[in-house]
Amino acid sequence: MKIAKEFHWEMGHRLPNHKGLCSNMHGHSYKMVVVLEGNVLGNGMIIDFYDLGLIIKPIIDKFDHAFLVYDKDKVLLDFLIKNNMKNVVVNYYATVENICRDFIKRISSEIISKKIHNIKAITVKIFETPNSYAEMNSKIK
Predict the structure, then answer these.
(1) CA distance 40 to 123
(2) Are strands 66-70 and 87-90 parallel, antiparallel or unpaired?
(3) CA-wise closest residue to 8 among 30, 28, 33
(4) CA 118 – CA 38 distance, rounded (Å)
(5) Which CATH superfamily includes the segment(s) 2-62+95-139?
(6) Domain map (residue ranges) of the chain
(7) Pairing mode, if any, of strands 2-13 and 66-70?
């Protein structure tokens, strides 16, 4: 059985080595669809959507209205710190592919730490624009 829930947040980024407009500071309205696959429990659910929200909300809250900045982008990082702007420093270029990989790891880790054993797989699809997205699947071990 599979279930899915959608989440939204606003976030800025830039791709410092990009040869086009994405080298500039800009932002997106992100949408993420999380699909969980697993066994239905005695209560008739894989996981309560409320409980899934409790897992994902802290992750979204960290990134919402923040600027995602690559730790080697010192010019931008210094600017954000100097101007006391909300930022999340990561060790990767802020592409939707890398964000998707990061989020699936964070969500999977939370599922494992909460000992939710009936969930067997997760798919995360993150839309950077209404028609552009990255998608990744992972088994839960």
Answers:
(1) 17
(2) parallel
(3) 30
(4) 5
(5) 6-pyruvoyl tetrahydropterin synthase/QueD (3.30.479.10)
(6) 2-62+95-139
(7) parallel
Contact 122, 36 (CB under 8 A): yes
Coil, helix or strand at residue 66: strand
Tell me how many degrees the CA angle 87-93-99 measures, rounded to the nearest 5: 75
Q: Which residues are catalytic?
A: 22, 65, 128
Full pLDDT tens readout for the chain, 141 residues: 999 999 999 999 999 888 999 889 999 999 999 999 999 999 999 999 999 999 999 999 999 999 999 999 999 999 999 999 999 999 999 999 999 999 999 999 999 999 999 999 999 999 999 999 999 999 997
Q: On the CB side of 2, how many CA atoms lie within 13 Å of its CA?
A: 10
Q: Which residue type, as a one-letter code, is found at position 126?
A: I
Among candidate residues 110, 101, 86, the one with its CA nearest the CA of residue 138: 101
